[in-house]
Amino acid sequence: MEIKEKIKRLEEYLNDKKCVLGFSAGSDSTLLAYILSKVSPDSLLVTINNNMMPDEFIEYTKKQAQNFKLEHKIINMDFLTNEIFLNNGKERCFECRKLMYSNIQKLPEFNQYDYFIEGTNITDLLENRPGVLVLEEFNMTSPLVECNISKKDVFEMIKFLNLEYSPDTTCLATRVKTNQSVNSDKLEKIHEAEKFVRSVVNQENIRVRIDQNNATVSVDEPLEILDKNLISKLRDNLQKLGFNKVFLDITGYEKTELKASTDDNGRYYYKLPYNIDLEKTRENILKRDYLTGSLKYDENLQYDDIIIEDNGKISMNATENFVEKFNQILGCVKRKNI
Prior knowledge:
The protein is an alpha/beta fold. 37% of the residues lie in helices and 16% in strands.
């Protein structure tokens, strides 16, 4: 499907739907905000200022909301008072979204809107993001998932529409290794480290991850920065910030990509990093008008030749259209638990 057709599909989905959109000014929410500005200009953008994001984050969201001529609300919160968040266990992502969305729903004008939406795309469902479990609890929808739009599609649409977005809107707490505590000092150190790396490395995706006060620098193309002077500069400046050791991740920044593996029966498959609720997935398949194939549910869930197992494995007969067929089903998949 051409980019213009995908944009049209998204426009038709959001047309005249008065929405509340969780807005970070990243690529996904920027695309949704732009479409809303064209087809549902009475919608509301809401940004959570939770002390977890880079300093420039809030000002940029304000600027973008003004560009789109959409109403914009900012809710100030301090996640560093939440014990679950500070402990940084596997529940952190879930708790984070729960805190954000529950506070958005407390806005006095919330009930004046018809839909509560957010920016998860199809590719995000390939990753271990337990926060998506919150969406059902708050009766939220993900238009990019509903319209089968991948991360690659989002970037292509952003480029086609000539939209600006912030490439750095991910929560800084994601840089701290799971089960190691989060605090303001660590987050400030990570922020300053990433700001410095960006000043000397011209690449899109830059992360500085922390593990027991050691820093690991991750960039898109690590081999391009293997210059003695640059490496020395990175080491010296990050150690000045208080890190003990500084490592470079030579495998590079990991971008999630859907690639088929082949099982012993010659079937193509991909295994999701979480368990699947087969009953809810079945219900979602039945709701999709475009999924008109045969559906069977016994030990596993089967749609035509596609077999969905509760352990996260989704397989099908070998085909050149693996990604297209997989994504159609992926948009229906419901995660079982954290």
